[in-house]
Structure formats: structure tokens, C-alpha cells
Specification:
This protein is an alpha/beta fold. It has three domains: 105 residues, Serine Threonine Protein Phosphatase 5, Tetratricopeptide repeat (Alpha Horseshoe); 107 residues, Orthogonal Bundle (DNA Cyclobutane Dipyrimidine Photolyase, subunit A, domain 3), CATH 1.10.579; 105 residues, Rossmann fold. The protein has a five-stranded parallel beta sheet with strand order 3-2-1-4-5. α4 packs antiparallel against α5, α5 packs across α11 and α9 crosses α11. The mean pLDDT is 95.
Length: 381
């Protein structure tokens, strides 16, 4: 069955309301079960919307806690904060992202890799997840963990190529969540602690759809001598000029921006030949539709521009104002462009992000211990 993710904020909010009506009550007990693509009511299916901030995490948390007590929905709230935590962690260690891109250039594609990405291994569940990913551009979170573990420890393929494969096909592909989750499974994120998929666990949480899967279940964590220390996040949000505003597709929570102050608004979607990580056509189409859904907010716009079209528009410009896209593909492109054009850049950054990211310098459990403080400070509960 093909899953159908809509491309408007209203539809995303309908999905949220459906989940909050009563499905969320069973989330903590049922969230780890993957019943198959035709039965996803045990999870929210909101991740493609969070990834592009068609709906933002903080508004969602507020809406949830307006209806339920924190104790009732603690696990769901924590899962949303995982996304915020990953972003903050990568913001303080952007070299993890640049090293990931550099590593990919050095890795060759062999026959084992080709069999894996075509779903032609001897592992039935893995092959089915490959087909499901390509058809639906979505996988259940638990299946993504099993998939990554099998890729790294049973098929013995480079984690970087697996992360690239996910980013190509996932509608909710996010530079921070995806890259760091693959590192976590590999045993690099929490050094010396890897995640191993086990046959009994797959059988239990797929409702016995896959039994007796032969896996390597005692593999040791990967090692990497590179050490990434957190660095202070330094981003300019000073506005001296309201000439051009740039909006990328991965932060579309823009309703509060005073667009009338700007001469021109540029909605930007990089083409595949402008990307380090190529995307499936359906993912590109989804992103374009999301950008187009915001056109009604703006009068002085230029449609959806490619990176090269943006480059042409910025001839003789000296200053750019940008909705901050976070560490990832868009920011990599932007930094290259601003250096090339000698542009001064200022960012629109969510104060909620800035507040939360300060707690992302260590592990998630440290961040988690600060969730009550975050909820109180941001007045979300």
C-alpha cells in the first residue's frame, strides 16, 4: 500500500488532530510495533512535516500539553525533543556533517552494496524495507534502526552509504537526525555502544511477520579516531538591510515573518546536480509542493528557484537575510554561495531553537533532564 503524505499545513494539522484524538494514548505501548505500511495508526506519521517545519515542534508540544498531562504523553514529547536535540548537537559539531560528505567521496560501490539497495539480499525483512522505502518514501522508526544495524553489521556496508541511501528516499530525511542516528547505530555517536538488530526483536515487533532472520547479533561497535568537541554556535541575526529574503524548504514555519519589509522573497529548492546527496524524484516533488503551499503568504516572490537561479538573482547584491536552514545540504550550499559572492548574511533563527540547543552539548540524557526547564521557559505546559 502506498502511503499518502499531503503537502499543506492544513492537512498536516488534520493528521496531528487525528493522532491527538485518542491514538496518542497508546503511543508509548505501541510505538515500537511496525505492523506494515497499511497500518500506521500507532505512530503519528508527522515526521515529514516536522522535517520541513510545515508544522513546528514547539507548537505541536504546546498543543499536545494543552490536551494531555505531561505524564500521559511523556514518550511522544521526548521523541519530538530528540529531533531538536540532534539539530543542536550537529550545530555545535558541523564538522561531523562535512566529514560525512567527504567520506562518501572515498567509498566505492561494490556488488554487495548494489544488492542491498535493490533489495536483493538473503534477508527478507531487509528486502521488504528497501521496497517499502522506495515506494512510500517512509519507514517506521524501529524498522529504520533494524535496517541500519543489518546494513552495518550483517551486510558489512559503510554506514555513510546507508545514511546517503536514506536521505535519497525519505520524505523526512533530515541531516541531523539521519546522520547522527546512523552514527548511533554504528557505535560512533555513543562511543563503544552500538545497536544490534536481533531476530527475536524483529519477530516480536513486526507481529511475527518476519521470523528466524539470520543476523550477526554479536558485532562490536565501529571505531573512528576523529573526535568532535562542541563549539559555540555563532550566527548573526542582525538586520541592516531588508532587500532579499531566502527561504529554503527545510524551515517553512514562516507565517510570523513580515514579508512586506523585503524587496524580494526567494523560495529555493536545490536541484540534484546542486546537491551532494541526490534525492528521489518523489522527494524533490514533495519539497517543491511544500514550498509552493507558502506562496499565498507572499506577494513579491519569484516562484521556486534552483541554486543557480538564485545565484543569478544575487548578482551585485551585498546582503542576504535567510531563514536559517541548519547544518546540512542547504547551509553547505549557502556558505559556498556567500563566499563566492562575498555576501554578508544574517539569519532568522527561532529563539526556541537557540534556547534548546544550549542543552545539546552533551548526550541526550543530559538534554532530557532539562526538558521540564525547557517546557517552563518556553511556556509550553
Amino acid at each position: 500500500m502506498t502511503m499518502n503524505f499531503k503537502n499543506s499545513k492544513n492537512e498536516a494539522l488534520k493528521q496531528l488532530d487525528f493522532f491527538l484524538s485518542d491514538k496518542i494514548k497508546e503511543y508509548s505501548q505501541k510505538r515500537n510495533f511496525d505492523y506494515g505500511p497499511n497500518k500506521r495508526e500507532n505512530v503519528s506519521c508527522l515526521s515529514p512535516y516536522f522535517t520541513h517545519r510545515l508544522i513546528n515542534e514547539y507548537d505541536t508540544i504546546k498543543k499536545v500539553l494543552d490536551k494531555y498531562s505531561y505524564i500521559e504523553v511523556e514518550k511522544f514529547i521526548q521523541e519530538i525533543f530528540w529531533r531538536i536535540y540532534w539539530k543542536g548537537w550537529l550545530e555545535q559539531r558541523p564538522k561531523v556533517w562535512s566529514d560525512f560528505l567527504s567520506d562518501l567521496k572515498e567509498i566505492n560501490q561494490d556488488s554487495n552494496y548494489l544488492r542491498a539497495i535493490n533489495g536483493e539480499t538473503n534477508i527478507n525483512c531487509f528486502n521488504d524495507w528497501v521496497r517499502e522505502l522506495k515506494e512510500n518514501n517512509y519507514l517506521h522508526n524501529h524498522s529504520m534502526m533494524w535496517f541500519a544495524s543489518i546494513w552495518i553489521f550483517t551486510l558489512r556496508l559503510p554506514w555513510q552509504k546507508g545514511a546517503e541511501f536514506f536521505m535519497k528516499y525519505l520524505l523526512d530525511g533530515d541531516a541531523a537526525s539521519n546522520t547522527l542516528s546512523w552514527r548511533w547505530v554504528a557505535g560512533l555517536q555513543t562511543k563503544g555502544k552500538n545497536y544490534l538488530a536481533k531476530s527475536f526483536n524483529i519477530s516480536k515487533f513486526t507481529n511475527n511477520r518476519y521470523n528466524n532472520t539470520k543476523l550477526i547479533e554479536d558485532a562490536i561497535p565501529l571505531k573512528d579516531q576523529r573526535d568532535y568537541k562542541p563549539k559555540k554556535i555563532e550566527l548573526s541575526d542582525k538586520i541592516d538591510n531588508y532587500g532579499n529574503l531566502i527561504v529554503f524548504e527545510n524551515d517553512l514555519d514562516i507565517e510570523k515573518i513580515k514579508f512586506s519589509k523585503y524587496n524580494q522573497i526567494h523560495f529555493v529548492l536545490l536541484k540534484n546536480d546542486e546537491r551532494y546527496l541526490k534525492l528521489d524524484d518523489k522527494v524533490i516533488k514533495f519539497k517543491r509542493k511544500l514550498l509552493e503551499s507558502k506562496f499565498s503568504l507572499v506577494e513579491n516572490k519569484n516562484g521556486v528557484l534552483s541554486g543557480n537561479q538564485l545565484r543569478s538573482f544575487l548578482e551585485n547584491q551585498k546582503f542576504l537575510h535567510v531563514v536559517y536552514p541548519s547544518v546540512g545540504e542547504n547551509l553547505t550550499f549557502l556558505k559556498k554561495l556567500t563566499k563566492e559572492k562575498n555576501l554578508e548574511v544574517s539569519y532568522i533563527i527561532k529563539p526556541e531553537d537557540q534556547y534548546c540547543w544550549q542543552f545539546s552539548d552533551k548526550g541526550y540524557f543530559n538534554f532530557k533532564s532539562n526538558i521540564p526547564k525547557i517546557l517552563s521557559h518556553l511556556k509550553l505546559n
